[in-house]
Amino acid sequence: METPPTPDHVQPDEEVDIPSRPISLDLDLNPDLEEEDENIKSPALQNTSRDMAAKFSSNIENLPPVFSPVRISVSLWTLPFEDAYQQVKKQFVEGTKRQPITLSQQSNFVNYVDAQLLQIQRKFIKNQAESAITYTPTQIIDDLLPVVDLLWILLLSHDPLFGQEEYYIKILGDLEDWLAYYTLPSLATLLASNTNFFVKFFDLFQKFDTQVSFLIDGYYANNRISKMSATEVVRLSPIVMRLRLTIVQKLEHSRAVLDAARNIPATDEALNVLDVEIGRLFEGILERI
C-alpha cells in the first residue's frame, strides 16, 4: 500500500484560506481498517474467537480460588489498662463509707490474710517435695483471689491504709518464686482448659496492676491523702520487673509454637491475644515507678 504524499508546507509569507464550511467528523483516518474489520468478521475467525473465549473461560473456572486475607476477630482476656483503671476508680467512688475500721478489726484482718498466705506457702513447699504436681498454678490463683478481693474491699471503706500495701508487695514477691518453679500450660494445644487458665491468670495480674496503681496514685481518707510511700514504691519496682520477666519467659514456649504455626486462624488469634496480654502486664505500675 502506498502512503499518501506529505502536503506542502505553507511558506512564512504566504496567506492560507481556511474553509468556512463545517468539517465532517467522519474522517477516514485509516482506510485499511475497514478491510481488516471485514477479515475479522469472517465465519472462520469468528468461530475461532468463540472457541478461544470458551476455552479461556473454562480455564478460569478451573483455577484454584484466590483467598483474600481473613480478618480475625480477637477476643481479649482483659480490658485495656485505662478502661480497667477507670472501673476501679468508679468502684472506689461508689463505695459505701462506713464507720472507721477499729484496731480489733484491723488485727483480725491481718491474722486472716497472714493465715491464708501461710497456707498457700505450705502447699507450695509440700508440692516441691512431691514427685508429681499436687498444687497447680490454677489452685494458687484460686487461693489468692479471695485475699486480693478482701484487700480491695477494705479499701472501698475509704479508710486510711493500715498495711494493705505491704500485702500487695509481699504477694507479688511470693508470686515471683512460685511462678519460677512451675511450667505454665501451653496455649499451643488450644485446649479450653488451658485458655481458661490464662483468662484467670491475666485477670489476676490486672487486678494487681489496677489496684496497686490506685495505691501509688493515692486517695483521700479523713481529709488527707493515703498512698504508698516512696520507700514502698522503690521496693515494689524490682519485684514487678522481675515478675514480669519471669512471666514472659514462661510464656515463650507457647508463643514460639504458635508463631511457627502462623496462617492458621485459630493459632493466629491465640498468638495475637497472647501478645496483647503480655504487653498489658503491669502496664499501669510500670508507668508510675
UniProtKB/TrEMBL annotation:
It comes from Metschnikowia bicuspidata var. bicuspidata NRRL YB-4993. This is Uncharacterized protein. It holds the Pfam family TFB6. InterPro entries: Tfb6. Residues 1-28 are annotated as: Disordered. One of its GO terms (cellular component) is transcription factor TFIIH holo complex.
